[in-house]
Amino acid sequence: MGNQPDEKFTWVIKNFSSLQSKRIYSDIFVVGSCRWRLVAYPKGNDMANHISLFLAVSNSEILPVGWRIHAKYSFTIVNQLSDKLSRHEESQQKWYDQNALAWGYRNIITLTKLNDKEGFLVNGKLIVAVKVEVLEVVGKFEESSPVMETIDGFQVLPSQTNREIFLGGFAKN
């Protein structure tokens, strides 16, 4: 996992100033065989007058028991007038698991600075970029769900069944 190149995802949030939702989600993207999404709080998450931004595991409910992801990420709030003025936030390496599904910043940028005419918000559009490097994955991650069999009206895994065929009075497995 450590030899994979960093991956970048860009999220364009339209009509940011008029959003009424407490929390908004990006589309799901895949880096290092892991499914991610960005979560933003346009009015802050327990931090008034700030935008909050987090990188979250998107499919935690279907991951195997004991899964863990070791990842490093960085956020950029893109200044659309001058890249030099973009706001970069580097992270430390973080472990994601059942108890820590998301990491990020409660106060990545103030709403005052965001709404100023400095170039972060242009024509109602906010651009957020994240760069993710998956360092290690613990647990087997499969995109597809297991095939189920129906036995007497119950859904079971094939490994939970034993099929016997009777030929001429002899049982054959």
From TrEMBL:
Q: Which SMART domains match?
A: MATH
Q: Which UniProt keywords apply?
A: Coiled coil
Location of the MATH domain: 6-132
Give the PROSITE patterns listed for this entry. MATH
Q: State the Pfam families in the record.
A: MATH_2
Give yes or no: UniProt keyword Coiled coil: yes
The name this protein goes by in its record: MATH domain-containing protein
Q: What organism, scientifically named, is this protein from?
A: Eutrema salsugineum (Saltwater cress)
